[in-house]
Amino acid sequence: MIQSNPVVHFEIYVADMERAKAFYEAVFETKLENMPNPTPEVEMDMWFFPMDKETGMSKYGAGGMLVKMDGFSPGSGGTVVYFACEDCAVQASRAVQHGGSVAQDKTAIGEHGFCALVRDTEGNLIGLHSMK
């Protein structure tokens, strides 16, 4: 039986890496780190969200990255990645300030806190979650 969160990684596909990188760094006030291409025969541009380098994907939570790669397009689909926030209304507001849009304003979800949905500069739908 898996004792921790079974989700270990996510990828958000983008068309314009510089635009997408600027959006996520501004909305979450963080720095993404370039990952060298592990498969040179496939052209990829990848930027990791911060994560614990010593434990990598073995701790609770999931590491993830922005990826630009032929054959994989951004846009809405069946999966939504939620980002933890102190107050999801703050990141929703930043999303709009940096070229995104709000799909669902901050909404109470009972004892589970609050969530909001935004579209990034690439058209991807992402979730924001906070307890206040």
Count the DSSP helices.
Answer: 2
Q: State mean pLDDT (0 to 100 scale).
A: 87
Q: State the domain count.
A: 1
Backbone shape: globular
CATH homology group: 2,3-Dihydroxybiphenyl 1,2-Dioxygenase, domain 1
Structure, explained:
The chain is built from two helices and eight strands; from the N terminus they run E-H-E-E-E-E-H-E-E-E. By secondary structure, the protein is an alpha/beta fold. It has one domain: 2,3-Dihydroxybiphenyl 1,2-Dioxygenase, domain 1 (Roll). Helix 1 (17-27) runs antiparallel to helix 2. The longest helix has 11 residues, at 17-27. Residues 6-131 form the VOC domain. InterPro entries: Anthracycline_SecMetBiosynth, Glyas_Bleomycin-R_OHBP_Dase, Glyas_Fos-R_dOase_dom, VOC_core.
List its salient traits.
132 residues; 8 strands; four-stranded mixed beta sheet; globular; 2,3-Dihydroxybiphenyl 1,2-Dioxygenase, domain 1; alpha/beta
